[in-house]
Design a protein that fits this description.
The complex is a heterodimer of chains A (352) and B (111). By secondary structure, chain A is α/β, with parallel strands linked by helices. Chain A has 15 helices and eight strands. Chain B is mostly helical. Classes of the chains: A alpha/beta (352), B mainly alpha (111).
Chain lengths: 352, 111
């Protein structure tokens, strides 16, 4: 069931990254029942994990969100006040002008709730970056009148939309994301289609992100995409381009759920058993830099939530240096098994 | 802790059966894996058949495994329950069809 408050607002122990990291290294991992992630990747000579060519800059514009999804790894919600300032955005823009990355990926929370979001999109689009992504939860478009024109705004700047939709049926979506979310998401998708997203003859890309509504792994991405496309077209006349199947990583609110539902050990066993060495070569931390609302640099959005700042002399956007960053070792823990299970998982879906 | 014949943790250890008979164990798992690949029937259809059979043979490990498999494949709970009913209908039909034997015997013994 969707929650009303973040872990942070509830002052839950798991709101502290150090407690999550301690939990992920104790129990079945401390007792040696399951191998530590670093030992697992060492078997194939991948430890320490090193970056490859930087392709994606992912900016987290803040943890504020209009939803409180039960699986959220950001612990986002209306009660989170962490928002990227205009000053930090300006520092990011300097980096965007010079980066070798071909993709700019804005996420949150609901990035649209940042008061400087539209200004930032306008400015960032001037850099001519090849793929400009905004991760939208869809319901924000209908949350308030001031957001109703977002589809037109996204179209104007040729923004590539990646939207979360846990399932093509109402019940599962609402259970994970809150009552009424499914209907609003469907309406928002129809609005995006109407302005040209995922329509023939336009270049406006609309992808969906699917993540399982429970303690199980996603199945084959292509099969899920086929099911989603068929159901959404038949039931709601909705089109989209691709579906990304994303594994829930055992951190933050999803970790809380796993522990409370007594699924934690089974889930970790499943992740470890599904470990795929081929996925390690393409995990997203090898081609991404994640930047937090306050300008700190991380190997990925998950490490950001665990406050594992990059292991580099450069740690903040104000000192950004791509060459120095590319020499770092990527920080890992047991949550990383989530990105290497089965076909692998990333913000861009399967990797193997 | 209560003593039971079934322990949910044992499902994770299924693969260990190869330790005491490697050749047969490996042959079984190869066969098992092959059976559930896409074929004339889709893997999704086979998952639902497996779920129905799991109930008929009353295997708690199999029920856990194929409920999760169904969730992963996006099979809905309505589809899962219909599959269980299909298994239950065959099982109850198999019982009831013996009623004909009972009727035959009854008639034979009766004047």
């Amino acid at each position: 069931m969707a929650l009303l408050k973040s872990l942070s607002a509830r002052k839950n122990d798991l709101s502290k990254p150090e407690n999550q990291l301690a939990f992920l290294s104790n129990g079945i991992f401390r007792e040696g029942e399951l191998p530590l992630f670093k030992d697992k990747i060492a078997e194939t000579g991948n430890y320490p994990l090193k970056p490859k060519t930087l392709e994606i800059l992912q900016l987290n514009l803040g943890y504020m969100c209009n939803q409180v999804c039960s699986h959220c790894h950001v612990d986002a919600g209306p009660d989170r006040k962490e928002i990227m300032t205009k000053e930090t955005m300006q520092q990011c823009l300097e980096v965007i002008k010079t980066t070798k990355a071909h993709t700019l990926d804005l996420t949150g929370g609901a990035p649209e709730m940042n008061p400087n979001f539209r200004w930032f999109v306008e400015e960032a689009s001037k850099a001519g970056i090849k793929d400009f992504i905004v991760r939208s939860n869809l319901t924000i478009i209908l949350a308030n009148k001031k957001y109703h024109d977002l589809p037109e705004f996204f179209k104007k700047y040729n923004v590539h939309i990646i939207s979360s939709l846990p399932f093509y049926k109402r019940e599962k979506t609402d259970k994970q994301r809150g009552s009424g979310v499914f209907d609003k998401s469907i309406k928002a998708l129809q609005m995006l289609n109407k302005v040209g997203y995922a329509q023939p003859g336009t270049n406006l890309k609309l992808d969906l992100a699917y993540n399982p509504a429970g303690a199980f792994l996603p199945t084959n991405q292509e099969a899920m995409e086929h099911d989603f496309k068929t159901a959404l077209k038949e039931d709601f006349d909705i089109d989209f381009d691709h579906l990304f199947a994303i594994t829930n990583l055992p951190i933050s609110r999803f970790l809380e759920y796993l522990i409370a539902s007594e699924n934690y050990e089974d889930y970790m066993y499943e992740l470890v058993n599904a470990y795929n060495p081929a996925a390690v070569k393409n995990v997203m931390c090898t081609n991404t830099i994640s930047i937090s609302w306050d300008g700190w640099l991380y190997d990925c959005d998950f490490n950001q939530m665990l406050d594992l700042k990059v292991a580099s002399t450069v740690k903040h956007i104000s000192d950004y240096n791509e060459d120095l960053l590319n020499n770092r070792n990527i920080l890992i823990s047991q949550h990383c098994y989530g990105c290497t299970a089965g076909a692998g998982s990333s913000c861009q879906g399967s990797v193997a | 802790m209560a003593k039971t014949y079934y322990n949910p943790d044992d499902l994770r250890k299924f693969g260990k059966i190869t330790e005491w008979s490697e050749e047969l164990g490996n042959k079984f798992f190869d066969y098992y894996g092959k059976v559930f690949e896409e074929g004339a029937l889709s893997a999704r259809e086979k998952s639902l058949i497996a779920l129905a059979v799991s109930h008929v043979v009353k295997c708690p490990y199999c029920i856990d495994a194929y409920t999760k498999d169904g969730l992963q494949r996006g099979i809905t709970k309505e589809e899962m329950m219909e599959a269980v009913h299909a298994g239950a209908a065959i099982e109850s039909g198999a019982t009831l069809v013996h009623g004909v034997q009972m009727m035959n015997k009854y008639d034979k013994l009766s004047m």
